[in-house]
What does this fold into?
Amino acid sequence: MGDPTHTPGPWVVNRDRRGAGKLYVREARIAEVAGATAGRAVAHVTAVVGSDEQLGNACLVAAAPEMLEALRLALAEHGRSVLFGSITLDAMERAIAKAEGRDDG
It folds into this structure.
């Protein structure tokens, strides 16, 4: 396998009858997310088993909590300072809203 590369977005979440989230890109399901308990998976990433894309998607899902926290810290520390342009700030705020389920995205 080469370097893991994730499926290009945008990714959207659809909930099923049970409330489980499914991630889709252009009508194709790429992951199913369920509530995690000790020793159980939080997400099942779909693609060709063993593919670079499957590994890339799994890496992206695994990094999501840290990326969300980094965005929150950057906004809390710098707010609307000149460090970030307005387009960057808007993108950061949209990403946080999507991660928190406040945007259909």
